[in-house]
Amino acid sequence: MSSPGPLTGRVESRVRASFAAQTMLATLGASIVELGRGRVVLEMPSDPRFGQQFGYTHAGAVTALVDTACGYAALTTMAEDREVLTVDFSANFVAPAAGERFRASATVLRAGRTIVVTRGEVHAVTGDGKPRLVAAMQATMMAVAPPPAKPDVPAT
Amino acid sequence: MSSPGPLTGRVESRVRASFAAQTMLATLGASIVELGRGRVVLEMPSDPRFGQQFGYTHAGAVTALVDTACGYAALTTMAEDREVLTVDFSANFVAPAAGERFRASATVLRAGRTIVVTRGEVHAVTGDGKPRLVAAMQATMMAVAPPPAKPDVPAT
Amino acid sequence: MSSPGPLTGRVESRVRASFAAQTMLATLGASIVELGRGRVVLEMPSDPRFGQQFGYTHAGAVTALVDTACGYAALTTMAEDREVLTVDFSANFVAPAAGERFRASATVLRAGRTIVVTRGEVHAVTGDGKPRLVAAMQATMMAVAPPPAKPDVPAT
Amino acid sequence: MSSPGPLTGRVESRVRASFAAQTMLATLGASIVELGRGRVVLEMPSDPRFGQQFGYTHAGAVTALVDTACGYAALTTMAEDREVLTVDFSANFVAPAAGERFRASATVLRAGRTIVVTRGEVHAVTGDGKPRLVAAMQATMMAVAPPPAKPDVPAT
Fold this sequence. Notes:
4 copies of one chain form a homotetramer. Chain A has helices spanning 9-21, 23-28, 59-75; strands spanning 31-36, 39-45, 83-93, 101-111, 115-125, 132-144. By secondary structure, chain A is of the alpha+beta class. Chain A has one domain: Roll (Thiol Ester Dehydrase, Chain A), CATH 3.10.129. In chain A, a hairpin with a 2-residue loop joins β1 and β2 (39-45). Chain A is globular, with a radius of gyration of 15 Å. Chains in contact: A-B, A-C, A-D, B-C, B-D, C-D. β3 (83-93) of chain A pairs antiparallel with β3 of chain B.
């Protein structure tokens, strides 16, 4: 990404409005920590409703957070009349998701007109301890017209 | 997978106990539809708490369901004293996740002693309509000792 | 893929011409075994020039073959004035690539107007033996205008 | 990766010997630019034998280079009696592979005892120009005993 930096107020408003429209993010308790051009950081608390079989946070919850961070990092580089959809992602889970909260950071590797490629990482954060990497994602995002013309037709 | 087929009662009990221990799955309302050796089908309802910005179900919720299906498909092929962790997955989202419920089907491509490779698909189901593919996953699972010896140490 | 089937002669000609233009495929000794709408099978011989450190065929050579199969499976579903580029892929290597030759089979999971999602598998073939799975791919392909307007500008 | 740094002579020798044993790398004309603990840089020239249909370098050749860089970055973190195999990777192709040569850089995200997670990037290099990103990979590597006990048995 050759030009990270601050967002215009209009782009920031669009991201915040889109974020607020995602009920999944409210359910997860996610919030925006940082918003910049090609750079987004989100957080969510550890929550006993989203556990896996050993009591750690489920990979699906961790994935939801970092997918969202990647999506909005991509959106900040798109034309102002576009919305963003996830085409695909690949995620590695490198340590159990144990911590007080989780922080997902995303950056844009390349911003094309249609396809935007991003990377994200999730760190577990506990007290004053050093954040610990729990997951890494590489995600392909796509600029689409909002809303999709017909809700029952695939948007790609 | 050369030998799909029915499970022993012991393996089925292990999978059902592990499933029941995942609070994420209760939160999503997920249930087991089919359990066989190297083959698992799960379902969850569409739920307004897990929406993305256009009102479709969030990719993170869809991912949680199919990751779980892949994990248990893998577990059915592992030694009986093993548990399963997700090493990584790649998921494509091919249509908006719109439907009354979502069905995730997983099969094992290759069952190694340590690494088990799986594929899964998620279909949206509505009334009597034909199920529609919304996501496809390829996932790498790993057999581990349960529980991890120390909760704060990465299990891989 | 709802409508697999035979290709029109025009589409088959386009695929064969594109295949012939790829020097990589000649270098690998690859050939077309089967061409259908949304379905392509390629083969290449085992070749000592493409080995990894244990003498098996290198993952990069295996990947080149199955990426190509996925790309042409996608191309058969695209509008006739389009060419295909690989956006991304994920590949699992499930057994050493040992055999007399390798056969890559690809099918289309979903054919969108811009994005086509595919899956492919590579089997090792030896004598009259049963083909053995060595790799599995999930790949995202994109329809583009041929040739890219400016060779030095990213095509996405 | 918490402790990048120089390699011991023994580890460097092992990597160089393994590299030299890969005929694929000689065929591609690949060479080692940098070797450190958890960090490897390789290069190969652009070569008309490895072209795709528009004359750019084939994704398979680019993938072979960065997969190799990721594998050796992982190997530098493994116990000294281990070899490395690729479990899986995901790669995004963000720009046409056009240049005089290609440089693949890999780093280790997390070094487990069995599984090592890596990231790599490929840049096209031309004359004195700024290197241009053409591909990004996230790869899962596995420590195995060398050589596999039986060549015809999957090593995982």
